[in-house]
Automatic annotation (TrEMBL):
Pfam families: Plug, TonB_dep_Rec_b-barrel
Compositional bias per record (Polar residues), positions renumbered to this chain: 341-357
Keyword Lipid biosynthesis annotated: no
Matches recorded under InterPro entries: Beta-barrel_TonB (IPR000531), Beta-barrel_TonB_sf (IPR036942), Plug_dom (IPR012910), Plug_dom_sf (IPR037066), TonB_rcpt_bac (IPR010104)
Span of domain TonB-dependent receptor plug: 59-166
Protein name in UniProt: TonB-dependent receptor
Amino acid sequence: MRNFQKTAIAAAVAHVAVLSSAAAWAQTSADTTANPAPTVVHISGQRAALQSAQQLKKNADEVVDSIVAEDIGKLPDRSVTEVLQRIAGVTIDRNMAGDPNRQSVEGSGVSVRGLTYVRSEVNGRDAFSAGGGRSLGFADVAPELMAGVDVYKNPSAEQVEGAVAGLVNLRTAMPFDYKGFKGTLGVSESYSTLRKGAPSPTGTILLSNRWKSDTFGEFGALVDFAHAKSPTRSDGVGVDPYFPHVNSTDPAKYDRSKTQWIPLGVGYRSQDFERTRRGDYAAFQWRPNRDFTAALTYFKTKYKEDLDEHVVTSSEDKWYQQVASKDSVFDSNGVFQSGTISNPTYGGSPFNSSQRINTRESSTRDTSLNLQWRVTPDLTWTNDFQHVHSTTEGFDADVSTGFIMPNQQMDMRGNVPQITLGSPAYMADPNNYYWAYTQEALDHATATQKAWKTDFKYAFDHPVLRDVRFGFRMANRDGENHKAQKFYNWQAITFPWMEGWQIPHVARLGDPRFAGGASLQKIDNFFDGKYNIPPMLFANESVVRGFPDEWSKIHAYHDVLCKEQGSTCDPWKAATFNDPAATNTQSEKTRAAYTQLRFGFDDLKYPIDGNIGIRYVKTTGAGSGYVAYSPAGVTIPTDAPVTGVDTLIYIKPFAEAQSYNNSYHNWLPSLNLRLKYSDELQFRFAVAKAMARPDFNQLQVQTTLNSAPNQTTIRDSSGKTTNVIFNGTTLTGTSDGNAMLKPTTSTNVDLTAEWYFAKAGSLTFSAFNKDLKDIIITQDYSYKATDVNGKPQTFVVTGPVNGAKGYARGFEIAHQQYYDFVPDWLKGIGTQASWTYVSSERTLNKPVFNAWCSGNDASSNYNLSINGCDTDGRAFGKTPLQGLSRHTINFAVMYEQHGLSMRLAYNWRSRYLLGVNQWGSRGNNGLNTNPAADPAKYLIPTTNNDQAFGLPLYQAPYGQLDGSIFYDFTDKFRVGLEATNLTNSYTRQIMEQHAGSFTRQVFMSGPRYTLLAQYSF
């Protein structure tokens, strides 16, 4: 069915292209007939924007696709990210960046031709956000400021390096773009069908003018301000991994074909998300004479996001005690389909009900000065100065209660899993809940960049040579990243496993001593009313946001019970920025020089033009951070014989500052050729070497070292310990980054055929191939430290290295046309369509595949992290490149006539890998079904967390229909309605297991509508 869907959509796109092509030929032929009837078509709005974008693509020196705003502030979507997905070969993720467990309603993670090595610019200058990345968060940029978006698929030598996948340039308006005074005012209000009643006003204003002075020349000034709120809601239903319930733990009776696969549990989450975007832009231009122009621009984008989430999820770890009811339904592979799951041994399954708050404030400010001087009629000299300052600050907090769920009723047979978690009476009883845990993470980062580039262009009066360009660029970038600690500060309040040795009982919410801080809360209209989730007890929002004071009150409940038990318990400590091991500073200097020659052979039967150039780049980086070691406690038993204590390694804890310097250089040649078969038909060939430096978070100088004693405990048949054997200490570590990483490089080849049969009509084809080297993966290296006896010891540290190569290759077909030959009542209708196919492969320099998985989830378990492991110990083998869909489809129907402008746009992409060993689909309590395993572990459910599993997690195919309708009451005033996700499409995640492909999560956000009014003056 899935293959049929892809084939059908692709065929539909091809069919539209062929019919449109035939119509275009018919239109061309009709022009030769005698006395053709005149056709009057009003050219404005979206049609004019398409014409402008087409001219940019047709006349560009490189392979480029563009989207041009109908007017300033009139990009066709509500965010820059959503705009980009309309371009052939560009895809966006539907999950929050780095977190597949949460949906991003507006999208995130831009990829070009399946690769994420995307460079971002604003007006041709470097643009980035603080926090470790090299690109700008496109969803955080106010689209109201944009005049257009260009995506360069294979940049040339004169463009700043860093675009292996592509270069995204955001263009703003300049005052000299307009003949005189220009003013626009826009307001809008959005409505989410799922998150009802949340106000979301947007306002934007642009003012621009230019003046002439006989003494000082011509001046221009433009200011543009935008402020927007975007409240959304996303509901999700989740299913945990399926575990193998074998027919027998006796190897002689074990039959794999009789295994029953039962999910660990189910849950749900509902998140209210609000992003407030603010954009400030100002531009000033001065032209004292026709040979000199100066431009000063100020661009600032600032956003604040706030996520408020309620999550109910299983925390069961003894899956082998779970049983399915007698009326449960299984498929032919033994996979659970519907029924009731319970844990009679434990009296139910442990669950958590959490309220999570995640806030972030970020800002990027760019101030730039551009000076262009035409020294002579043939020589132009341009200088560009830029200063960028970016900051970000985040707070992620989670406060959870716990309870025992008697049973879970579920049905997996529909599009969305149907679940029932407890009766309303049970879920409303505070005596069934206890305070469980808190966790928090805090961070803040700052990055600055100073850049200068100078460019020369010398034009030739020559039949072949057009001009030669050369220039230099210098950029210094510095960044500081601070975390309260390296990982989440997870700390228990009370759990049943603490009972008897630390506390007498858990802190139940029904106990008046522990009742403060939580309340009965209901998620209204969950999944658009398709579920009836009963009210449940969650921590109050004021408590979660009241960190750290309110948290201290909750953790004091634990202290009360500790005192009651007579135990000595350490008080709760909030995360602070006092941990030196969680601080990292980096600096980078780049020096670049290029030369590029443009040429053209106009006298050939089929004229050829193009450019050839080379860019040299030297990169020098430095970083400082800490390497920290905290030894694990070792308990020497006193009630049994012990041997091998002398083999244990003892190293004192330490946190030492460390710094690194790295330097490399790259030569980046490029060639772009264009052959004009006619004024309408042309072909391109482009080949270039490209590079993408590691993200700054991959260059962090932060290493955490760990140790664990190798201990074997021997027990007799009654369970009494008879002997304890120590055999040395395992020394491992993890590194957040590697300051010695090299850039990923690629050789990019493009071949295109472009037919421009009308001003807003084209049919284009592009074949491409990108060969990648030095792809960054995770591997191990050695770190030396001295033990208490002065003897050097070696830690095996896992961190990022340049350890793979690969490719991404495929083709793009794109078509657009307005159908002017149709009857009068249809005039003004047009279509856009594109289909992108990408095939990819990644090959490790050191293959790590093993058919069976063993060990825990230590970072050195590469088979787990790269290939993935099932809950029964079987590995999955080679997985595709992350984030890459083989097929991407865009199709839009447009109409524009008599002041009415409408658009329906559909975007679809096939499934893609979100990652392997992701949170929510991983764990340490799998079952070892490897026949060659240690008999003590074979078919025995682990209680030591030493059988790790991590499933490949895929995003299922997804398509979304958006639309808009505008009416121009006058040339200056228009109103409109924009709709997003008209068909209420669900996003679905699939976890791959050997027994089948199972739903991991299903999200819905509902349709959203925006009413707009725009006035020009």
